[in-house]
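Q: Convert this sequence to structure tokens.
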Amino acid sequence: MKAEAMNLLQWQKRFGTGEACAEALKQQRWANGFQCPQCGHDHGHWIAGRKVYQCGRCHRQTPVTAGTLFHSSNVALVQWFLAIYLMVCDKGWLSALRLSRQVDRP
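A:
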């Protein structure tokens, strides 16, 4: 997969909110439509308040972050996306301390 080049302002317009990050993750995970990881059913509905898909057959709720490095993380998706952006864009060495300061994590 080839990512499009973007500067920080473009990144912020596209991924500057948790909702935008969740939507991007949702589109990446289920580009061909939702498929339940439990029963394989291909129909479900999005519950926006909980950021989960609910399967139409077995009613299992699957968070958009399930099965990803973001699952069960206390770090917001915006901070994860920013950290990934900064690591990819940095041509030199980006220390963990510098990265944590950049994404506002103590």
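The mean pLDDT is 86.
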